[in-house]
Structure formats: structure tokens, C-alpha cells
Specification:
Blueprint (H helix, E strand, L loop, with lengths): L9 H12 L14 H11 L5 E5 L7 E6 L9 E6 L19 E2 L2 E3 L7 H16 L8 E6 L10 H7 L1 H4 L3 E4 L5 E4 L2 E10 L1 E10 L3 E2 L9 H14 L8 H9 L7 H4 L5 H7 L3 H11 L2 E9 L5 E2 L2 E10 L5 H12 L6 E9 L2 E2 L5 H13 L4 E7 L5 H6 L3 E4 L9 H7 L6 E3 H18 L2
Parallel strand pairs: 3-6, 3-7, 7-18, 9-17
Antiparallel strand pairs: 1-2, 2-6, 4-5, 5-19, 8-9, 9-16, 10-14, 10-15, 11-13, 12-14
Helix pairs in contact: 1-3, 3-15, 9-10, 12-15
Bound molecules: zinc ion.
The site of zinc ion has 5 residues, from loops.
């Protein structure tokens, strides 16, 4: 593909293209991912640059790379750049191009991972490489953790590292995805810095019935029919709105129109607003950020077409707000399922509570200064995301972790959200150059 303009930072573009082409697709199974391909690619770029390099491979192929520029003062705060190297699967039939082509078209790099988050990982790696090669010797250590398995549970990546290699990746401050896309508001440009995220409390419901011959279904106890009723009840169930501090700060910072802003902070009004807002994307975000959500996603049941099923399993993706425990989740499920409860067993699959970092920290101020530098006049707004990132592992260990990258104004927020795990994922080369530049500049002021 020929380009009729000059690339500002061909090195980061090339690295991203190669990372996309490595297709480290994590489908949630242990045998997927093969992040070793991206770990080795990054290692090759960093070798000989004067930093310490270590590869960790808890399972064959599930490798993470940790690079480190040791600080001169062991008491000075350390900073970790945390980027994942895996991507979610992509369906080639619904994409306009091969999802793993890494093509550069009209100033954009195409492919799975272009915004989630190989773009940031590549920018961080190039910045780190430049710092190391320049002989940068900070007071506080700088760590680059390019990790596997973020797109599943992080058990073979950040989760494993923070448990088994805590001293290698440990840091006082962490920067990871997402954040940084410019948003135009009536009050001017805003850039979100992710400061917190919801928890995941995934549950499996085992619905019981009585097996029988399917040729005579009258008055049988069909687990699938019960499961259908359970799903309907869960879909109709409305957990209460909670306006927490992080949400209040976000709404306050966004200069939203008069007819929306106050309603987003009113627990009695927000449900109706979310149902009626013409902007579905905003409605979904607003709803998710202020409610525990329940999404039935997988059903397994039945054995043979002529047998009334006696057991059906429903998997629920449940996302929790700060302070909402598994006990709370179970009590809400019981309330939703109501009098079908004696046929339903609730089993835990995974529980990860919500996590949050304070604002107004030295790193916050540093990122805020970067916002001013790259988008003069824009304001930084703290955001609480509905999705999960590897930041949670580090917050749990006391680190201040934010999600941030620097972007041009070529992509808007809506496009950005739609491309996350969606079709035709791509990023503009200007954003890649800006992020690489910012990640190189930041430690020069923050760690010295
Ligand atoms: Zn991601």
C-alpha cells in the first residue's frame, strides 16, 4: 500500500503492524493467545538498549515481557507502563479487510488490536526503547510490562505477574488502557483519564427440571422452559441506580447540556433518561456506570431432541459498582428469580471487585499537563469504566493506576467505542506518534 504523505513516526507504525500480524488471539482458552510472538518481537526491539529484560511464561506460549530501567534512588516512586499484547477474536466476514492484515490505508493502521490496545503497547514500547537507548537514568524506576491474557482474566498475564513476579512489575504508578480520546462538549474539549472500573461477578445458574419423554410434554417439569422464564425475569429486573463519587466527578467535568447533566446525577431520573436518550452509546455507558448490570450470555442444556431436559445452565456476565459484594449480587439474583428460586442454584464463576484510584496525585497532575500540551485548552476528566482492565491487579496492591493514551482528533469517541472488540478496528498514525512522544516525554519529568 503506498501512502502519499510522510509518516511522522514510521517506527511505531511498523511495530503496531507487526503486532497485529502476529495475531495473538485470546479466545479465553489456555491454548490460545500465543502472546510469545509479541513478547519476542518487543524483546528484539529492546535488546541491546541497556535495559533489563525478562520474559515470563507461566504456560507454554503465554509469555509476558518485562523491561526495566532501574532508578538511581530506590525510594523514588516507580512508574510502570502496562500494555497487553493479546487481542480478542475477529470475524473476517464482517470486516472490510483481513482483521490481521495490519495494512496502512489513508493514514490508518487496520487490524484487531489497533485501538485495544496494541496501539498503546506499541507506543509505550517505542518510547521505552528510545529512553533506554538514550541512556536515560531516572531517579525512580521505569518498567514496561507487555502482558499476555488481558482479554480473558489476566490469570496468565498481569494477574500472574503481580502474584509471582511482584518485585519485577511492582510500581507506585501505572498507566494502561483506555482513555485519552478527545471529546467535544459544549464547554470545550475533554480528555478522559480512566481512574476506576467496575467489578466482574460472573455467575452460573443451574436450572433443574425432571427428565421425561418429549412426545408427552403436558405437565412436565422442563428445565429449558424454566430457564427461559428465569432469563425473562433477569432481563426485566432493574437493579437500583447508584450515583457514586466517580460518576459525579465525570458528569460534573463533562459540561453536558442542561437537560441531561442534572438527570444523570439523579438516581430517581436516570433510568427513564437512559431508556429515552437518542444517543444509545451514551445511554448504555450512563446506565452501566450507575447500575449493577446482569447480562445472560451463554446457555447450555438438553441432551437429545426427544428428551425433556432436566438441567440447563445459564452463564451471567454481572458487573458490579464499588462496594457491591458477591453476597449482594446473590441477594439481587434471588430477588429477580423470585418463586423459581427453588429450581435454581447460583454458582460463582469469578469474582473481581470494582477498583478505583484517587485523582489529584502527582501522576494525575503530570497527565493533566500532557493534556494541556497536546490539546491546549482541553480539560482532563476522570472516568469510571464499565469494562475491566489489568489496572485492577495493580490498584489492589496499592498502586495508583490510570488508563490513558494520547490521541489526535481524527477519531471520535463513538467510533472509538464501536471499534473496541468490534469490526474494522483501526487507528490513525498521528495518534500513534502522539502517544509514543508523550510516553517518552512523561518519565523525563515524572521520574527525575
Ligand atoms: Zn484492552
Amino acid at each position: 500500500m503506498t501512502e502519499n504523505f510522510e509518516l511522522r513516526d514510521p517506527e511505531v507504525v511498523d511495530l503496531l503492524q507487526q503486532m497485529i500480524r502476529n495475531a495473538c488471539v485470546n479466545d479465553g482458552t489456555e491454548a490460545s493467545g500465543h502472546e510469545i510472538a509479541n513478547a519476542e518481537l518487543l524483546r528484539t526491539g529492546l535488546e541491546g538498549s541497556g535495559c533489563d529484560l525478562e520474559t515470563y511464561e507461566p504456560l507454554p506460549g503465554r509469555a509476558s515481557l518485562v523491561a526495566r530501567i532501574e532508578g538511581s534512588d530506590p525510594d523514588a516512586p516507580a512508574l510502570c507502563y502496562l500494555g497487553h499484547t493479546d487481542v480478542v477474536p475477529a470475524n473476517p466476514e464482517t470486516w472490510s479487510r483481513d482483521p490481521f492484515c495490519g495494512d496502512l490505508v489513508d493514514g490508518e493502521v487496520w487490524g484487531r488490536g489497533a485501538v485495544d490496545m496494541l496501539n498503546i503497547t506499541a507506543s509505550m514500547a517505542i518510547a521505552f526503547q528510545r529512553l533506554a537507548r538514550s541512556g536515560f537514568r531516572p531517579r525512580g524506576s521505569l518498567v514496561l510490562a507487555a502482558v499476555a491474557d488481558e482479554e480473558a482474566l489476566g490469570s496468565h498475564g498481569a494477574g500472574w505477574l503481580t502474584e509471582h513476579a511482584a518485585s519485577a512489575v511492582g510500581a507506585d504508578y501505572v498507566i494502561t488502557e483506555t482513555g485519552g480520546i478527545p471529546i467535544e462538549t459544549p464547554g470545550g474539549r475533554r480528555l478522559l483519564i480512566d481512574v476506576g472500573e467496575k467489578g466482574s461477578c460472573w455467575c452460573r445458574l443451574r436450572v433443574r427440571g425432571q427428565a421425561g419423554h418429549a412426545s408427552t410434554p403436558l405437565r412436565t417439569d422442563n428445565a429449558l422452559v424454566t430457564a427461559a422464564q428465569v432469563v425473562s425475569r433477569l432481563a426485566a429486573f432493574k437493579p437500583q441506580a447508584t450515583v457514586h463519587d466517580a460518576w459525579r466527578r465525570f458528569v460534573g467535568g463533562m459540561a453536558l447540556p442542561e437537560e441531561i447533566g442534572p438527570l444523570l446525577l439523579d438516581p430517581a431520573a436516570i433510568d427513564d433518561l437512559c431508556e429515552s436518550l437518542p444517543d444509545v452509546g451514551l445511554a448504555r455507558q450512563a446506565h452501566a456506570c450507575t447500575h449493577m448490570t446482569i447480562a445472560p450470555t451463554i446457555v447450555h442444556g438438553g441432551t437429545k431432541v426427544n428428551i425433556i431436559p432436566d438441567r440447563v445452565e445459564l452463564d451471567l456476565d454481572i458487573r458490579t459498582l464499588p462496594g457491591q459484594t458477591e453476597t449482594y449480587v446473590r441477594s439481587l439474583l434471588a430477588e429477580a428469580i423470585g418463586d423459581l428460586g427453588d429450581k435454581v442454584e447460583i454458582m460463582s464463576m469469578h469474582d473481581d471487585p470494582a477498583s478505583e484510584s484517587p485523582i489529584g496525585t502527582p501522576l494525575w497532575d503530570e497527565l493533566d499537563a500532557m493534556v494541556q500540551h497536546y490539546h491546549p485548552g482541553a480539560e482532563s476528566v476522570p472516568f469510571f469504566t464499565a469494562g475491566a482492565t489489568d489496572a485492577r491487579f495493580f490498584r489492589r496492591r496499592g498502586a495508583v493506576a490510570y488508563g490513558f493514551g494520547m490521541f489526535s482528533d481524527r477519531l471520535n469517541f463513538e467510533q472509538f467505542l464501536a471499534m473496541f472488540h468490534g469490526d474494522d478496528e483501526r487507528v490513525d498514525v498521528e495518534s500513534l506518534a502522539l502517544s509514543a512522544e508523550m510516553f517518552e516525554a512523561l518519565p523525563r519529568s515524572f521520574l527525575t
